[in-house]
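This section describes the prediction task in plain terms. A model, or a person checking by hand, is given the sequence of a single protein chain and must write out its three-dimensional structure as a string of tokens. No templates, partner chains or ligands are provided. The sample shown here is typical of the held-out split.
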Amino acid sequence: MGPEATAAFYSGIFRIFQKRFGARYDDDYPEIIMISLPLPDVVECRGDESAIVSMLTEAAERLQSAGAEFIAIPCNTACRYLRCIEKAVSIPVLDIVEETAKRIKAGPYKRIGLLATKATIKSGIYEKCLEKYGMSIVFLGENMQEEITDIIMTILSGKKRDEDRNRLIEIIDYLAGNGADAVVLGCTDLPLLISGYTGKIRVFNTLKILSESVVENATGKA
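The expected answer:
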């Protein structure tokens, strides 16, 4: 969720196996069971919450029935329903927010800029998670938040526009100039637009972080 971010997530997993473990043959990779779930809109908060929870929990049950040993969801916004998903299955469900927070706390970061959907911001899932590690969030103003939403929706439509990438970099630099020590790409579609950022501040790519966590859980090796 969305489909293109999921494709990049899957690609990220097997790239790690190639680079870290020298994977070459099909049996060098783990078995992966994938459900690309057509949820009602969660970016602009237009979906029916009960329908979203039902679809997520049913998908988790299907993955467990198919033999999955743990579940990963490459969508930050969906993690506001994580506790409901966890209750539906008896296998672990990786938390992209928690996995990201653990990476951030290993560094000298205290004030974190968050680029995410309005639903993720409103849910407070990052705020609560980072607070327990002694960190706080630098939020965008309403106008800039609307710009981030528009950029995400444009990416979801398959468009990677230079003007959006440039604006995203400007917003990251804005956060750096307004007290942020690091920035989280808290929507898995944003890394599809910007990668390899080497500007004023450390940027944490949640899609990459979750890919790394999946490999670690699949192999038992960090």
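For orientation: DSSP finds nine helices and four strands in the chain.
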